[in-house]
């Protein structure tokens, strides 16, 4: 069977469930909101923003970070409940390895990054309010030095998450524009 026959056959193939696609895109929006907020906060020179603006940025970042964690739990539950379509036959062995590695690391990081942020903020004893609706409990003893260490790890993990997101987007676009093999369609909302 030629590649074009395989591609044509695949294009009519299975996609992720509507619930998986919805949760994927919600999760993407949350991550792509929380990451830039964190970068702005981390890179802002003292005095760049008023105290009120900086507090608002922190509250927004923490709120979106908590939502990233909550939707990660939901995403795993939906994945367990719905499974996944069979692997795409047009993937090369290297693409399959890279795809699997990036996906698994993304799952780890969408748990690790927000948990590190929550732990570091807990150790600092800053209030963690989620969109002004409720406060998260502190689960690490107050320790400002420990907070700096944990928040440093949070920042490094967030940069790794950003790189993984970029790799994931790059891979999806490669399948959409270059290979045109239907991989992108599997997660597209209107599929």
Q: How do you describe this structure in short?
A:
This protein is mainly alpha-helical and 191 residues long. The protein has helices at 3-11, 18-43, 51-82, 93-124, 144-179; strands at 129-130, 134-135.
Please describe the topology of this protein:
Blueprint: H1 3-11, H2 18-43, H3 51-82, H4 93-124, E1 129-130, E2 134-135, H5 144-179
Antiparallel strand pairs: 1-2
Helix pairs in contact: 2-3, 3-4, 4-5
Structural commentary:
This protein has helices spanning 3-11, 18-43, 51-82, 93-124, 144-179, and strands at 129-130, 134-135. The chain is built from 5 helices and 2 strands; from the N terminus they run ααααββα. Helix 3 (51-82) crosses helix 4. It has a two-stranded antiparallel sheet. The chain starts with a helix and ends in a 12-residue tail after the last helix. It is mostly helical. Residues 1-10 have low confidence and may be disordered.
Q: Strand content of the residues, in percent?
A: under 5%
- Residue share in helices? over 70%
CATH topology: Fumarate Reductase Cytochrome B subunit
Number of domains: 1
Outline the low-pLDDT stretches: 1-10
Q: In whole angstroms, how far apart are the ends?
A: 25 Å
- In round numbers, the mean pLDDT is 91
CATH superfamily: Transmembrane di-heme cytochromes, Chain C
CATH class: Mainly Alpha
Evaluate the radius of gyration. Answer: 19 Å
The biggest beta sheet is recorded as: 2 strands, antiparallel
Q: Which structural class matches the secondary elements?
A: mainly alpha
Strand order of the largest sheet: 1-2
Gross morphology: elongated
Q: Please trace the helix and strand order, writing H or E for each element.
A: HHHHEEH
Q: Tell me how many strands there are.
A: 2
Total number of helices: 5
CATH architecture: Up-down Bundle
């Amino acid at each position: 069977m030629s590649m074009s026959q395989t591609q044509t056959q695949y294009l009519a193939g299975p996609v992720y469930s509507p619930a998986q696609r919805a949760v994927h895109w919600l999760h993407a929006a949350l991550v792509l909101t929380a990451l830039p907020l964190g970068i702005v906060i981390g890179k802002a020179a003292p005095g760049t923003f008023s105290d009120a603006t900086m507090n608002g940025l922190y509250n927004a970042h923490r709120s979106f970070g908590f939502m990233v964690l909550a939707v990660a739990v939901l995403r795993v539950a939906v994945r367990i409940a719905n499974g996944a379509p069979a692997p795409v036959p047009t993937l090369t062995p290297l693409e399959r390895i890279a795809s699997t590695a990036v996906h698994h690391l993304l799952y780890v990081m969408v748990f690790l990054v927000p948990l590190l942020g929550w732990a570091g903020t807990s150790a600092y004893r800053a209030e963690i309010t989620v969109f002004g609706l409720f406060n998260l409990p502190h689960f690490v003893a107050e320790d400002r030095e420990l907070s700096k260490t944990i928040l440093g790890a949070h920042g490094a993990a967030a940069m790794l998450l950003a790189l993984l997101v970029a790799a994931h987007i790059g891979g999806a676009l490669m399948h959409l524009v270059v290979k045109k093999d239907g991989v992108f369609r599997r997660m597209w909302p209107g599929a």
